[in-house]
């Protein structure tokens, strides 16, 4: 299938969580000047685009995902001049900047909400979703993603407002055309500044079903709102309007964080015909280790189920729509601790294997800060070391409701909590990992003395250099970006083996997901003696004569 070439399909994206990346002034909080100072590092790694988690004015109830002014910078992060300098420095390095766009909700301290809650006649009232209570209770049975009901009672006007996330994150009413005008104007303002795209936070949740019906009760504290909130009735209409009025006027990279998206829906959001967004960022592979308490579970993902989900997205979107490739972001635990092995013996090997497996797939790859070093989950000593509102609230809610005891819930948080991704970037082995001269806002992972950027840049066989090579290969071989995908050995519990095919050329990707040797069968047409494009271990005997070693990854290439 002939595929149209575009820069955003060929790019590798690096996500920065500014609060934890680099602190330039010793207040313990990462900032924009810190990012500007690390542009050479990013250039050296070879990435093309930065996705910047929110840097807008915010009271930080959810670390910047609660925005109180979309046209200003968070005080702790610096000034608009600092932003302009960062943007300019990035561009000088040939790096693009994609902004996080959080418009499902604002902060309750945003001027629109401050007005909205004043009175029912206020011109901003309908910017948000206000309802009367039902029988002295909330308007429906929806629960917030951060525990508690999704509704907050407001004394002033004796009504409830909807907040799918924290009560300081009221949901905007996208059915109000004035809200869409405001959002589109704001986006245009940033585009005129010269930014290169948007990552759209929970964009699949902006259109709620008519009447806001109760969700089905499934034994938890709240009803299942998924069917009434995700991929709602007007979401595609609103995104097409956004595309017409803003996105199509510029050359942008646009990615929708689409929780609850199916392949069928993704074909609408991210169709290659380009009426809405460039690509989706979906969660099906990340949700595989959910349990009765949702994400709070420490079950390990089985490889056959992972392969099934990955392959479904690879095959069904091929030639039709575009996907993101990721193992990590600021909401997910570290992948070496989840799908790999963070024991020192296998940490680097398994980090490289996971990177190989992901970066040889079709889609736009994302690297979350520190992933390129094989950073791991964090041994938080107790709950006082946690900072994330989601974990803190869930610990309280699930233990109080008797769904889990404290030890169990804390173990789940150590395994899945978002703070695992949010500890400071490990730059070197000096105090606080070189992140700050002060006291960091969240603890540094004690393993920074072994795992840090300085050491890895000096060492040829480091995880850092491996990522560097994967990024380079993507630029050198069209097949990685545009080839089709064929899965082999779907039921095998240890080996993920797939082919990529483009015209006369083929790649064979072999990854062992276990700490034991693993047997495999070479697909027809492969001898095992082909060119090795990349491998995470030195060549031993030719592949056809042996098993895969623990966490081994090899990519073979041939052309007819
Ligand atoms: O996350 C949206 C989302 O789908 C969350 O429910 C996510 O799955 C959860 O955090 C995982 O535990 C986005 C942002 O990425 C997240 O950081 C924000 O907290 C959230 O939206 C609200 O803006
Ligand atoms: Ca700072």
Explain the overall architecture.
The chain has 560 residues and is α/β, with parallel strands linked by helices. The protein folds into four domains: 7-105 and 177-378 and 423-470, Alpha-Beta Barrel (TIM Barrel); 111-162, Alpha-Beta Complex (Oligo-1,6-glucosidase, domain 2); 379-422, no CATH class; 484-559, Golgi alpha-mannosidase II (Immunoglobulin-like). It is built from 18 helices and 20 strands. Strands 13-12-9-5-2-1-15-14 form an eight-stranded parallel beta sheet. It has a five-stranded antiparallel beta sheet with strand order 16-17-18-20-19. Strand 10 (216-217) and strand 11 (223-224) form a beta hairpin. It binds 1-O-alpha-D-glucopyranosyl-D-fructose and calcium ion (CA). Residues 23-25, 27, 29, 31 line the site of calcium ion. 1-O-alpha-D-glucopyranosyl-D-fructose binds at residues 62, 65, 102, 145, 165, 201-202, 257, 259, 295, 330-331, 390, 418.
CATH homologous group name of the largest domain: Glycosidases
User: Mean of the pLDDT scores?
Assistant: 97
Described by its quaternary structure, the protein is single chain
Strand % is 15-25%
Q: State the strand order across the main sheet.
A: 13-12-9-5-2-1-15-14
Shape: globular
CATH class of the largest domain: Alpha Beta
From the 3D structure, determine the CATH topology of the largest domain: TIM Barrel
Unreliably modeled segments: none
Gyration radius, rounded: 23 Å
Helix/strand structural class:
alpha/beta
Counting DSSP H or I runs of 4 or more residues, the number of helices is 18
């Amino acid at each position: 299938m002939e595929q149209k070439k575009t820069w955003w399909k060929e790019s590798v994206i690096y996500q920065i969580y500014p609060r934890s990346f680099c602190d330039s002034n010793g207040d313990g909080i990462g900032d924009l000047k810190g990012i500007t100072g690390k542009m050479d590092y990013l250039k050296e790694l070879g990435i093309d685009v930065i996705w910047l988690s929110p840097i807008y004015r915010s009271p930080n109830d959810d670390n910047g995902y609660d925005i109180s002014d979309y046209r200003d910078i968070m005080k702790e992060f610096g000034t608009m001049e600092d932003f302009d300098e960062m943007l300019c420095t990035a561009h000088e390095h040939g790096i693009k900047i994609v902004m996080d766009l959080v418009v499902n909700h604002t902060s309750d301290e945003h001027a629109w909400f401050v007005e909205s809650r004043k009175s029912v006649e206020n011109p901003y009232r309908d910017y948000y979703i206000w309802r009367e209570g039902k029988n002295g209770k909330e308007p429906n049975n929806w629960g917030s993603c951060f525990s508690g009901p999704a509704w907050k009672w407001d004394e002033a006007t004796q009504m409830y407002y909807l907040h799918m996330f924290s009560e300081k994150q009221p949901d905007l009413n996208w059915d109000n055309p004035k809200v869409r005008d405001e959002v589109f104007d704001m986006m245009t303002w940033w585009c005129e500044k010269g930014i290169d795209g948007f990552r759209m936070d929970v964009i699949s949740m902006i259109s709620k079903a008519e009447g806001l019906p109760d969700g089905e009760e499934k034994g938890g504290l709240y009803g299942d709102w998924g069917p009434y909130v995700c991929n709602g009735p007007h979401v595609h209409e609103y995104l097409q309007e956004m595309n017409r009025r803003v996105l199509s006027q510029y050359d942008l990279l646009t990615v929708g964080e689409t929780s609850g998206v199916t392949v069928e829906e993704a074909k609408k959001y991210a169709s290659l015909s380009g009426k809405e967004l460039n690509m989706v960022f979906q969660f099906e592979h990340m949700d595989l280790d959910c349990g009765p308490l949702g994400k709070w579970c420490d079950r390990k993902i089985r490889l056959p189920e992972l392969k099934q989900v990955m392959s479904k997205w690879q095959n069904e979107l091929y030639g039709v729509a575009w996907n993101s490739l990721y193992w990590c972001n600021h909401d997910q635990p570290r992948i070496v601790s989840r799908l790999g092995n963070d024991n020192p013996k296998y940490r680097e090997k398994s980090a490289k294997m996971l990177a190989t497996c992901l970066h040889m797939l079709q889609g736009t790859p994302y690297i979350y800060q520190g992933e390129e070093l094989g950073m791991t989950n964090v041994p938080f000593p107790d709950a006082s070391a946690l900072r994330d509102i989601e974990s803190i609230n869930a610990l309280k809610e699930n233990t109080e409701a008797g769904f889990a005891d404290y030890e169990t819930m804390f173990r789940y948080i150590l395994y899945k909590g978002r703070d695992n991704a949010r500890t400071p970037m490990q730059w070197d082995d000096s105090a606080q990992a070189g992140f700050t001269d002060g006291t960091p806002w969240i603890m540094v992972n004690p393993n920074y003395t072994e795992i840090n950027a300085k050491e890895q840049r000096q060492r040829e066989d480091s995880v850092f250099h491996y990522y560097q090579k994967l990024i380079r290969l993507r630029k050198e071989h069209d097949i990685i970006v545009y080839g089709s995908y064929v899965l082999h050995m779907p039921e095998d519990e240890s080996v993920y083996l797939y082919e990529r095919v483009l015209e006369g050329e083929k790649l064979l990707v072999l990854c062992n997901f276990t700490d034991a040797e693993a047997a495999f069968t070479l697909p027809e047409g492969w001898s095992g003696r082909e060119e090795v494009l990349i491998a995470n271990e030195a060549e031993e005997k030719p592949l056809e004569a042996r098993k895969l070693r623990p966490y081994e990854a090899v990519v073979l290439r041939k052309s007819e």
